[in-house]
Design a protein that fits this description.
The complex is a heterodimer of chains A (about 425) and B (about 300).
Chain A lengths: L11 H16 L11 H4 L10 E8 L6 H20 L7 E8 L4 H14 L5 E3 L3 H13 L4 E3 L12 E3 L4 H15 L4 E7 L2 H17 L4 E8 L7 H10 L3 E5 L3 H12 L8 E4 L4 H7 L1 H4 L3 E4 L8 H14 L7 H20 L4 H7 L4 E2 L7 E3 L5 E2 L3 E5 L5 E6 L15
Parallel strand pairs in A: 1-2, 1-3, 3-4, 4-5, 6-7, 6-8, 8-9, 9-10
Antiparallel strand pairs in A: 10-14, 11-12, 12-13, 14-15
Helix pairs in contact in A: 3-13, 4-5, 6-7, 9-10, 13-14
Chain B lengths: L6 H35 L7 H22 L7 H23 L8 H23 L15 E3 L5 E3 H23 L1 H11 L1 H6 L4 H23 L11 H14 L4 H21 L2 H18 L12
Antiparallel strand pairs in B: 1-2
The chains are: A alpha/beta (about 425), B mainly alpha (about 300).
Chain lengths: ~425, ~300
């Protein structure tokens, strides 16, 4: 015991456990332990790491309004964890997870985050979906020094040592899409729509700046917001008919989304003729909207279930095998799947579960097996990833129309766009 | 704002906008009718109204699945059967709820608020457990989607026309039941003076139960119809509850005419404002106006004249 690092004071129970294991140790061939580092070496801060397993947390809404969106993320994270375990786990330890329900309520998220960090001593937490829930848990993760892998595309303007953002920040999702529609559709006039909260407003602000300052002769002919949960869009649809914009740029979320596309179709706007670009409709949302109501619309994402690459061809069947053939995989679901893998790769590079070492080792981590293709963690803890444009089919899937040639750099604090 | 447009364009837009207002009116009225019966006539503050509507929507979804699988030939007409089933499903649930919960609370209207709020949470979680947390997509027969081309520039959404016709039918039906049938007289008698109504031989418990069931059933039909214009998920009912109460309270809780008038006023104000301002601003101004009017006229637009 003398050659143990100074910082880890062995507890009595740990000592007893260790002593109990001694006879068993002598029976096993030495090689069985060859690449399994000692617990004391890889966990110096008292995380929930034992000789055989490591505990992580999953924190999403299983109940309440947001359960609709967060279900896919939970499924993806569990799939990734089980795959990692099948491959032998992380640093020789199997991953065990503790799942908590944020219940679509932001204070609950904060409380459960604290529980996962303080009581369960989770080495990493995969979770949150809305920006509001992330903002609620951020101080908890910073105070108790936890590690959060956050999957959703979001408005940017945030960066933390204690968070890895596996979704796109706003510029990654917006700029390439606008450039594409401007170039290939020769779009000059844009009508911006959104639900009335921070993400659509920040995103549309970036979109407006880009349209006005970086696209030639392009302008915004209308910008409008609707209360969350609004279900009546006939008036704005009439306004759109009057202004005849080249592009409807829609960032409407939740139940409103379904109402908007149904009413758009009922009003006789054919999305095969009227270009509509959205950043808020993944395959998950189409499930509720109905493919026949949105066929022809363009979406700007980084992942579509229909992507044709070797990683995705393995990922999609594995997902369906675990969660049923009918479940669809949207952009955020894929981003949630990246979380456990990135954490595993980082822990192996750092040779430790310690939060500080994970945070420091994260920049530069590459995941070659990502279903979206190769991704890499940037110094700002966001991901380098490609931006893609897809076109909705009537069966609820997207056809890939365009993808950026290179990975797009994450830029959570874009100059000139704020 | 209109300088750049031709007269023809403007005419078409105003025609469509007028129609949009009428559709909104129908939607408001349809969702408020059930509550007008339950809250207006019985005085039960039913916070679970939205969940009764969504039950109707789920029944519609299930019916569409059944038709798709077993009788695809009749798919184009499934919606009518779905609405009838939705009425009975929501009505039956309403009857059960009245028996188990509401009848114990008739003298405590504020407690019904809490109890039905709890009920709405229970129902939401039940839908989530049974049908899954994700929204379901209700496939509609082709003839119900799309629009009628009235002239070159004017398109009228078919589902809007459908909702209008349905609303007209249901409103007339409810009006007839409440004001012209024998049973409606009993309902109104019980609500005005329960003890006296019981004394003259009306079975007040039965009247209560069927009235509540009728209100819930109408909510079910509304939910079924709204699969055409909105989403179907465990919490979709929450999208309607605020507007529904707004319409009923603004109209004067115990008056059917009041509900109609208030649905009309609110919908016209909102759709006009939405056209000239933005969606959020329209809502703010509409709500402000309603608050202002209710301050001056706390009993709502129309109120029963009763001797106090």
């Amino acid at each position: 015991m003398t050659d143990e690092p100074k910082s880890g004071r062995p507890s009595r129970r740990g000592l007893l456990k260790g002593m109990a294991a001694l006879p068993a140790l002598s029976l096993l061939p030495r090689s069985a332990f060859a690449d399994v580092p000692a617990t004391s070496a890889i966990d110096t801060t008292g995380l929930a790491v034992t000789d055989t397993d490591v505990t992580v947390g999953i924190l999403h809404s299983i109940t309440g309004t947001m359960a609709i969106s967060e279900t896919g993320s939970v499924e993806a994270e569990k799939l990734a964890i089980s795959q990692i375990n099948d491959q032998g786990g992380v640093l020789g330890r199997k991953i065990k997870f503790v799942q908590e329900d944020g219940a679509s309520d932001w204070p609950t998220f904060a409380e459960k985050a604290k529980k996962l960090l303080v009581e369960n001593k989770c080495a990493a937490v995969f979770g949150c979906w809305t920006s509001a829930s992330r903002k609620a848990v951020l101080p908890v993760f910073e105070q108790y020094n936890g590690m959060l892998y956050y999957p959703t595309f979001y408005e940017g303007l945030e960066q933390s040592k204690n968070v890895i953002y596996t979704g796109q920040e706003a510029t990654q999702q917006i700029i390439a899409g606008l450039d594409w529609v401007n170039k290939t559709k020769n779009a000059k006039t844009f009508y911006l729509l959104g639900s009335d909260y921070i993400w659509p407003r920040t995103s549309n602000k970036i979109a407006r700046k880009h349209i006005e300052n970086h696209l030639t002769d392009a302008k915004v002919v209308g910008e409008e917001y609707f209360p969350l949960g609004d279900t009546q869009f006939n008036s704005v649809i009439n306004k759109i008919k009057l202004k005849k914009p080249d592009v409807i740029y829609a960032i409407i979320v939740g139940g409103s989304n379904v109402a908007f596309y149904k009413q758009l179709k009922a009003a006789g706007i054919d999305l095969n003729k009227q270009t509509l670009l959205t950043i808020s409709v993944t395959e998950d949302e189409i499930d509720g909207i109905g493919g026949e109501n949105i066929v022809g619309a363009y979406a700007c994402m980084k992942y579509f279930e229909s992507l044709n690459n070797p990683n995705n061809k393995v990922f999609v069947p594995a997902f369906h095998k675990m969660w049923g053939d009918k479940t669809v995989i949207g952009d955020v679901t894929q981003a949630a799947y990246l979380g456990p893998w990135l954490w595993k790769l980082t822990a192996e590079k750092a040779g430790s579960f310690d939060i500080d070492k994970i945070a420091a080792a994260s920049p530069g981590i590459e995941f070659k097996g990502a279903p979206e293709g190769y991704v890499r963690i940037h110094e700002n803890h966001h991901l380098w990833s490609k931006t893609r444009v897809g076109r909705a089919r009537s069966d609820g899937q997207y056809d890939l129309i365009y993808e950026t040639a290179d990975l797009v750099e994450p830029n959570p604090f874009p100059k000139g766009y704020q | 704002m209109f300088g750049d447009y031709s007269l023809g364009d403007l005419g078409a837009i105003f025609a469509m906008q007028g129609f949009a207002g009428l559709i909104l009116f129908s939607v408001f009225l349809l969702m408020a009718l059930g509550l007008a019966i339950i809250f207006g006539q019985m005085g039960v503050i039913n916070m679970a109204h939205g969940e009764f509507m969504i039950l109707g929507a789920y029944v519609t979804w299930l019916t569409s699945l059944l038709f798709e699988r077993f009788i695809p030939a009749a798919f184009s007409g499934y919606f009518f059967i779905a609405m009838v089933l939705a009425f009975f499903a929501s009505g039956a649930l309403g009857m059960l709820v009245e028996w188990a919960l509401i009848r114990h609370l008739y003298r405590r209207p504020l407690d019904t608020l809490l109890a039905t709020w709890g009920l709405s949470l229970i129902l939401q979680q039940a839908y989530r457990s049974i049908f899954g947390a994700r929204e379901v997509g209700v496939t509609l027969p082709d003839w119900m989607m799309g629009s009628m081309q009235v002239s070159d520039a004017i398109q009228i959404p078919i589902n809007g026309v459908f909702v209008m016709a349905l609303t007209l039918l249901i409103t007339c039906g409810v009006g007839w039941v409440m004001y012209f049938s024998r049973w409606g007289k009993q309902v109104r008698a019980v609500m005005q003076n329960r003890v006296m109504a019981g004394a003259v031989g009306i079975n007040t418990e039965r009247v209560d139960r069927y009235t509540f069931a009728l209100g819930c059933g109408v909510a079910g039909i509304a939910g079924s119809a709204f699969t055409m214009i909105g989403s179907t998920g465990p919490t979709s009912g929450q999208l309607y509850i605020v507007d529904t109460f707004l319409v009923v309270v603004f109209g004067g809780a115990s008056s059917l005419i009041g509900t109609i008038a208030s649905a009309f006023t609110i919908s016209q104000a909102q759709s006009t404002l939405e056209f000239f301002l933005s969606g959020s601003m329209a809502k703010v101004i509409t709500l402000l106006a309603i608050v202002g009017i209710l301050m001056l006229r706390p009993q709502g637009l129309f109120a029963l004249k009763i001797r106090k």
